[in-house]
Amino acid sequence: MSDLPGIVITGISGRMGQMLAKTISASGKAQVVGAVERSGHDWVGQDLGAAMGGAETGVIVTDDPLEAFKNAQAVIDFTAPAATLEFAKFAAQARAVHVIGTTGFEPGQIAALEPASRHSVQIRAGNMSLGVNLLTKLAKTVAQALDADWDIEVVEAHHNRKVDAPSGTALMLGQAAADGRGISLEGNTESGRHGITGTRQPGAIGFSAIRGGDIVGEHDVIFAAAGERIVLRHIATDRVIFARGALKAALWGLDQKPGQYDMIDVLGL
């Protein structure tokens, strides 16, 4: 075993899980020391490399996160909110950096993550890419510069297997716009328009979601006023950008004190 930082990947059989395993292994900056899947999954008990269709790695996929986390310096987690809440507890016990790319949290679930962050570094973001986080900063800046005569709409597109809407990234962008405008996102949101909805609520931030095919991720923040529009756009064509960002976050977190952070902190933006 090398001296490189050890990372555990949760939800290893998913597309992001496998992408993370390949990205970390190829990076030369860290190593995969554990892989977690839900109980009953076919991969549990198999060598990770063999399960992925390659050479054996010596890492056995497990359904016991506590056992997997105990010798790791970091955990990268793109799963589901309920699972992430449990993983946060185990990461805190192991004092491991917990990088959270999971989306679809309810406000109460986000609040429930905080106790674990008193004992471990917790880095959570709706999107791990550099470009999206730059877009977030731009959205806030533009919203600060424009008055309420400008309507704000966030339009996002993803593959047909995504289960939550709006996406975590769309909500992150909407929150940035709300912060720039000096309003609360909650109570100032419009989404899911259908039928006779009446006119647009002045000052609200609208969300639209598109689902289809294998779209990795596309996000537009539209500022629209009478006679003109400003459109900020990010298009992801390969989910490896999220894996690279998550790895960067995990390595950055090794030098931080326990607490809650996001990609803006990681990237120094």
From TrEMBL:
One of its GO terms (biological process) is diaminopimelate biosynthetic process. One of its GO terms (cellular component) is cytosol. It comes from the Bacteria. Residues 131-267 form the Dihydrodipicolinate reductase C-terminal domain. NAD(+) binds at residues 11-16, 37, 101-103, 125-128. Keywords: Amino-acid biosynthesis, Cytoplasm, Diaminopimelate biosynthesis, Lysine biosynthesis, NAD, NADP, Oxidoreductase. Its EC number is 1.17.1.8. It holds the Pfam family DapB_N. Belongs to the DapB family. Homotetramer. Residues 7-128 form the Dihydrodipicolinate reductase N-terminal domain. This is 4-hydroxy-tetrahydrodipicolinate reductase. PROSITE patterns: DAPB (PS01298). Catalyzes the conversion of 4-hydroxy-tetrahydrodipicolinate (HTPA) to tetrahydrodipicolinate. The gene is dapB. It comes from Rhodobacter aestuarii. InterPro entries: DapB_C (IPR022663), DapB_N (IPR000846), DapB_N_CS (IPR022664), DHDPR_bac (IPR023940), NAD(P)-bd_dom_sf (IPR036291). SUPFAM superfamilies: Glyceraldehyde-3-phosphate dehydrogenase-like, C-terminal domain, NAD(P)-binding Rossmann-fold domains.
